[in-house]
Amino acid sequence: MWITSTKDSLFAITMRKLLGIILLSLLVSGNAFAKKINIILDCKYESGEHFFVHIKAGKAKIDNFNVDMQVNENFIILDQKSYEINRYTLRFNHYYGNRAYPGACKKLTKKKI
Fold first, then answer.
1. What is d(CA 102, CA 46) in angstroms, rounded to the nearest whole number?
2. Strand 65-67 with 99-108, pairing
3. Is there a contact between 36 and 57 (Cβ–Cβ < 8 Å)?
4. Category of 64 on φ-ψ map: left (φ > 0), alpha (ψ -120 to 50) or beta
């Protein structure tokens, strides 16, 4: 009897530890997309016009105008879905009216004046 109860309590302790590890990993993984982005992008339409996007500490500016920003797994969405920048390819679409104006961005190390 004594050996069986020790095995049972050892099993219960191991299971509690395992459950704790799983819960902690779920808590930590919930912040996967909450990483603070600090980047300056030089974005250019296919027509040749360009604009700058500055994203810092969860806030975004397009040519020094503050805009709303959302970040998901694949896209950075600016100005309530007006601009959609692919996080991996840096290709973007600017939606205006019924049209989408495509272009591409490149990362800048220093802001141009």
1. 6
2. unpaired
3. yes
4. left
Instruction: Report the alpha-carbon distance of residue 61 to residue 79 in Å, rounded.
Output: 9
User: Virtual CA dihedral for 32, 90, 49, 68, nearest 10 degrees?
Assistant: -10
113 residues of the chain, pLDDT tens digit each: 445 556 668 888 888 888 888 887 777 765 555 556 688 999 999 999 999 999 888 889 999 899 999 988 899 999 888 999 999 999 999 999 999 999 999 998 765 54
CB 60 within 8 A of CB 53: yes
Question: Count of H helices and E strands in the chain?
Answer: 1, 9
Give the tokens for residue 28.
């930590």
- What pLDDT sits at residue 15? 86
Please answer whether residues 51 and 43 qualify as being in contact, where contact means their C-beta atoms are separated by less than 8 angstroms: yes
